[in-house]
Write a structure and sequence with these properties.
It contains 12 helices and 20 strands. By secondary structure, the protein is an alpha/beta fold. The protein has 2 domains: about 130 residues, Lyase, Ornithine Decarboxylase, Chain A, domain 1 (Beta Barrel), CATH 2.40.37; about 240 residues, TIM Barrel (Alpha-Beta Barrel), CATH 3.20.20. Strands 4, 14, 15, 16, 17, 18, 19 and 20 form an 8-stranded mixed beta sheet that branches. Helix 2 packs parallel to helix 10. The two termini are about 35 Å apart.
Length: about 400
């Protein structure tokens, strides 16, 4: 039986549940899975561009010059990097020397790359100094050691820990950054500035990153963090850029309420709009999460201990959200996305660990071996965090960059 009166919360003009199956950018997902194989990550270029357009509009409302650096750790698929580079006004936020190399190989110039990382080795710092990308540092030690490797007068940023906890609730212990290993305590900013002067480095950027998956309920925490950041601005005489990091997310459940772009921009305008500085941000999940769908094939339907176990041809090695972060993924039947739920099932992966569970006790249409399921949103921190655990291999990836094609 079909339920067509109300469309699912996750659909839009790019991802459509039709009677014949799930369609992404005009391409039937089942057809792509048949031709490319599973497990398969599919990415919608149109959804990325839609979100970039929304971000640009919100940044324009702040009233400052702005820069966007895409957080490539979220997804470094070559097609997506080509898409980002073609946008011209978007650079790269990197977090390691190898990410810097990958960005340059993708065609980004060093001046379009900003690196923010923690616990950098001398080898890392030497590589970054040689690359001439902009580096944001968060310890006095890193400033001192970078000064030995970089040319005198090299420009750097300082990452400050605003001491505020915020982020997607079920993952807060791992994805909330306040009072963790990252960032200089505000009280140590004078020490960092003194060390930069001794090292012959010019501090031109003040940086923070609050957390991942900010929700409406985090609006107060975000405002508090911005207030801490704004209070540091007068302490840096030659400051040019204030970088507020990333943290904006996507819906994972119907009742999720991500912090809206207009509310985010209003807070930034209130706290930083009069600074006269250039505003930078580092979106990752915001741009690519909802653009991605992970398609898997059901290989096992097994009844055990009063529970229906549905096994699929993927595991936590290609998507760590459910196991590592306890972040839910929506499950959609690819060929019958509008069918009414018929039974409660637990969906498990093919890794030899009992905890390899994608979704527990979810209501889905009738499922048979050979069926296709889609997990979403799956465009961020999926393939980019995959491993070859149990020698299961890496997933396939495919970017749909026009209606029905690539």
């Amino acid at each position: 039986m079909k339920e067509t009166a109300t469309l699912p919360w996750w659909c839009d003009r790019r991802l459509i549940p039709e009677g014949s199956g799930l369609v992404l950018n005009g391409a039937p997902v089942a057809d792509l899975a048949s031709s490319l194989g599973t497990p398969l990550y599919l990415y919608s270029a149109s959804r990325v561009r839609d979100r970039l357009a929304g971000l640009r509009e919100s940044l324009a409302s702040v009233g400052l010059d702005s820069r966007i650096y895409y957080a490539m750790k979220a997804n470094r698929h070559p097609g997506l990097l080509d898409l980002i580079r073609a946008e011209r006004d978007v650079g790269i936020d990197a977090c390691s020397p190898r990410e810097v190399e990958t960005a340059i190989e993708a065609g980004f110039r060093p001046g379009e790359i900003s690196l923010t990382a923690s616990m950098l080795s001398n080898r890392d710092l030497a590589a970054l100094a040689a690359s001439r990308v902009h580096v944001n540092l968060d310890t006095v030690s890193a400033i001192r050691r970078f000064g030995r490797a970089a040319p005198r007068g090299a420009r750097i940023g300082l990452r400050v820990d605003p001491g505020v906890d915020a982020g997607y609730a079920v993952a807060a212990s791992k994805l909330s950054y306040g009072r963790a290993k990252l960032g200089l305590p505000a009280a140590r900013l004078p020490d960092a500035l003194d060390e930069a002067e001794r090292a012959g480095l010019a501090v031109d950027t003040l940086h923070m990153h609050l957390g991942w998956g900010l929700q409406e309920s985090d609006a107060g925490a975000f405002d508090q963090a911005l207030a801490v950041l704004a209070a540091q601005i007068p302490k840096i005489p030659d400051l040019q850029v204030v970088n507020i990091g990333g943290g904006l997310g996507a819906r994972h459940r119907e009742d999720d309420r991500p912090l809206a772009l207009d509310a985010w921009a209003a807070a930034v305008r209130r706290r930083l709009g009069g600074s006269g500085l250039t505003l930078a941000c580092e979106p990752g999940t915001l741009l690519v999460a909802a653009a991605g769908v992970l398609v898997v094939e059901v290989n096992t339907v097994n009844e055990k201990d009063g529970r229906t176990w549905v096994g699929v041809d993927a595991g936590h090695n290609i998507n760590v959200y459910p196991l590592h972060y306890k972040i839910p993924l929506e499950v959609v039947h690819v060929t019958r996305p509008l069918d009414s739920p018929a039974r409660v099932v637990t969906i498990v992966g093919n890794i030899n660990e009992a905890g390899d569970v994608f979704a527990q006790d979810v209501r889905l249409p009738e499922i048979r071996e050979g069926d296709l399921l889609a997990f979403l949103p799956a465009g961020a921190y999926g393939a980019s965090m995959s491993s070859d655990h149990c020698l299961r291999g890496n997933p396939r990836e495919f970017l749909i960059d026009k209606e029905g094609g690539s």
